[in-house]
Design brief:
3-stranded antiparallel β-sheet, membrane, two-stranded antiparallel ribbon, Transmembrane domain-containing protein, DUF92_TMEM19, transmembrane helix, 5% strand, mainly alpha, 438 residues
Length: 438
């Protein structure tokens, strides 16, 4: 190991030294320095190992460790280095656990080899511009090679590793090791979660979600994934299709609805993600407590209502030239809260039917399908009634505003509920329809 490091210091540019040391030190440690018979001894000597590394840093700083800690811009990376050594040296603490060793292969071989991708031209990932497509393939290849030398190959964990390494995170060393380790216990859920994180990151980069909106969405999706694939598919479907609908003909929508410019320019916020998910989350919590499948159906119905309302309002206001009162059916100004239209209603029906298809994840008959559709329509119509009477609508600059501003003239409703509050109430109504009548 010392010979390899010495040659790398002498013969290679400084930018390569850190990654070469990254691969060699960890690889030698888990393959040759530690084995199951040595675990009790190494565990007992663990504090001394840390002291030894500290002394090495003091004695030969210019030989190995300073080049390791410095990038090509001479900026220190102490957190990444500390994380790396902490994870590798923790191997004996885990009693040389095979799964943890395989996870370290992703850190040592996968992340180590991926580091060389920055020195070659390659297209950046859509979900993380700091990572490249070449880096993903190098992570996969490096993980498999290191696992082969370790004595076992797990292709699925290598796939998780290459996705986990490219996730935007404070420490990709920690992320790749953790996700790879968890993939041995719940492979499909971890794999799906890494994909969902990439999608959320991509939407944030494209300004469909704010940074906080992306973060809270990841936690919401993770909870849905933990509880039910059906509930996850419903909420994820609402999220993706809702974002697409909100961007449809957005210039025309900006002319009609004067108070949505921030959402369309910066993306959906954390509060919007929370407002549309709280009913579904509470239903899933009750499912965990009672194990009653009815609450899973209620969760899907809540997500179906959210998409029904989103399609009805966002698509309706740009597709229709005539908007009507939900009770009297007299014509009202397009963009007013609670207004309905033929095009918006049909769009809402389509949205509800799309989410209803989630029942085929574990098909139990069309009864569940139509009850979810019915609950979504009831909730969406309730949204229109509440919006018409309890949410402010004002005319301003030939458009509509949903909050009182200087120069606006009230054309309907009182300023009692915000748009987010209306969404929460309507989604709860859909969930309650299932809980009470299904």
């Amino acid at each position: 190991m010392i010979i390899v490091l010495s040659i790398s210091v002498i013969m290679l540019p400084q930018r390569y030294i850190r990654k070469i040391t990254h691969i060699v030190t960890g690889f030698v440690f888990i393959n040759y320095f530690v084995n199951p018979e040595q675990c009790p001894l190494i565990s007992a000597l663990y504090p001394g190992i840390g002291l030894f590394i500290y002394l090495i840093c003091l004695i030969i700083p210019n030989f190995i460790f300073v080049p390791i800690l410095l990038s090509k811009n001479n900026k220190p990376y102490p957190f990444e280095i500390i994380t790396y050594f902490a994870l590798v040296i923790a191997y004996p603490i885990f009693k040389c656990d095979h799964k943890f060793g395989m996870s370290l292969c992703a850190l040592i071989g996968g992340d180590g080899l991926a580091g060389f991708s920055t020195y070659f031209k390659s297209k950046a990932l859509p979900s993380n511009p700091q990572k490249t497509i070449l880096g993903v393939f190098l992570t996969l290849f490096g993980t498999i090679i290191c696992q082969w030398f370790y004595g076992d190959i797990n292709i699925f964990s290598a796939l998780v590793a290459c996705l986990g390494e490219s996730i935007p995170a404070i420490s990709d060393n920690f992320t790749i090791t953790l996700l790879t380790y968890l993939s041995f216990y719940s492979p499909y859920k971890v794999f799906i979660m890494t994909i969902l994180i990439h999608i959320s990151s991509f939407l944030m980069i494209k300004r469909k979600l704010t940074k906080n909106g992306a973060i809270i969405s990841i936690f919401i999706l993770a909870f849905h994934l933990y509880v039910s694939y059906k509930a996850l598919l419903a909420f994820f479907g609402f999220g993706i299709l809702g974002v697409i609908a909100s961007q449809f003909r957005k210039q025309k929508r900006l002319q009609i609805e004067k108070t949505i410019s921030t959402e369309l320019k910066l993306g959906r916020s954390a509060w919007q993600a929370f407002d549309n998910s709280i009913a579904s989350i509470i239903c899933l919590i009750f499912y965990l407590i009672t194990k009653n499948e009815k609450f899973i159906t209620a969760s899907v119905a809540a997500s179906a209502e959210c998409l029904t309302d989103t399609f009805g309002s966002d698509l309706g206001c740009v597709l229709s030239n005539r908007t009507y009162h939900p009770i009297t059916f007299r014509q009202v100004k397009t963009g007013i809260n609670g207004g309905i239209s033929i095009e918006g209603t049909l769009s809402g029906f389509i949205g509800a039917l799309i989410i209803c298809m989630c029942v085929f994840v574990d098909y139990k008959g069309m009864r569940e399908f139509w009850w979810i559709f019915f609950a979504a329509i009831i909730g969406s119509y309730s949204d229109s009634l509440i919006g018409m009477y309890l949410q402010y609508s004002g005319e301003y600059d030939n458009g509509v505003v949903t909050t009182p501003i200087d120069g606006s003239v009230s054309i309907g409703g009182i300023n009692f509920f915000s748009n987010g509050a209306v969404n929460v109430v309507a989604s709860f109504i859909s969930a309650l329809v299932i809980i009470i009548f299904y």
